[in-house]
Amino acid sequence: MWRGPRTLIWLLPPPFDAPPLRAYLMEKPLRIRRNPMALLPILTLPDPRLREISKAVEKVDGEIHRLLDDMLETMYDAPGVGLAAIQVGHAKRIVVIDIAKDDQPKAPLFLINPEITWVSEELGVYREGCLSVPEYFEEVQRPARVRFRHLDRDGVLREAEADGLLATVVQHELDHLEGGLFIDHLSRLKRERVVKKFTKAARLEARSSERETEDVDA
Ligand code: NI
Question: What is the pTM of this model?
């Protein structure tokens, strides 16, 4: 006897891959709520937000974990070896770093509220670049070794010492938290030249996207 569509639905078997809902909820509650990681747009020179001073993180919670994961994915995709939250528009004192080479296993570092506690007198030089100043590289001189303190991904206070490339990357990323960019370490002439170049490029791009909008509207 026909009992209406509701009964019919109950008679159908569940979809093949569906785990028993109860078990799924108990074992993996995060899997249901979490969205997959996302690539975040990276701000570039001369975006004024890059000059903002970032604020300390008060609580390392799920929202911060989400931002850390998205920043890490964005950095790997770019690709880059370091990324500060302000570069993706969040004025929070958060940095992700991974200086592992392509043939090495990934070794992400999550720095929350990082602070440099000591720098060496000895200096080192690296040719630096920045995801917010794309395709521009210049040599920058900085202390060769640094000691720094930070909260890790679990909110645990850590202290570490770095030399070589890592020392440079840590200093470069911490500059971002103060609204700094590596071009601030260059001569005024070089800095003004690169700012001018990026400002002009941004203006041209804004103009061409305005034209595209007009075309679509027409
Ligand atoms: Ni940078």
Answer: 0.81
Apex 188 CA angle, 75 and 174, nearest 5: 35
Convert 193-204 to b/e letters by CB count within 10 Å (16 or more is b): ebeeebeeeeee
DSSP symbol at 92: B
Contact, 114 vs 174, CB < 8 A? yes
Helix (H) or strand (E) holding 114: strand 109-119
Which residue numbers are catalytic?
173
1-186 CATH fold:
Peptide Deformylase (3.90.45)
Q: How many whole angstroms from 9 Cα to the centroid of ligand 1? A: 56
Containing 95, the helix (H) or strand (E) segment is strand 94-97
The single-letter code of the amino acid at 43 is L
Question: Separation of 56 CA from ligand 1 center, angstroms?
Answer: 19
Angle at 127 between CA 126 and CA 131, to 5 degrees: 115
Token digits for 8? 């019919």
Span 111-165, pLDDT tens digits = 999 999 999 999 999 999 999 999 999 999 999 999 999 999 999 999 999 999 9
Query: What are the extents of the domains in the chain?
Result: 1-186, 187-218
Residue 143 CA, ligand 1 centroid: distance in Å: 17
- Distance (angstroms) between ligand 1 centre and the Cα of 171 equals 10
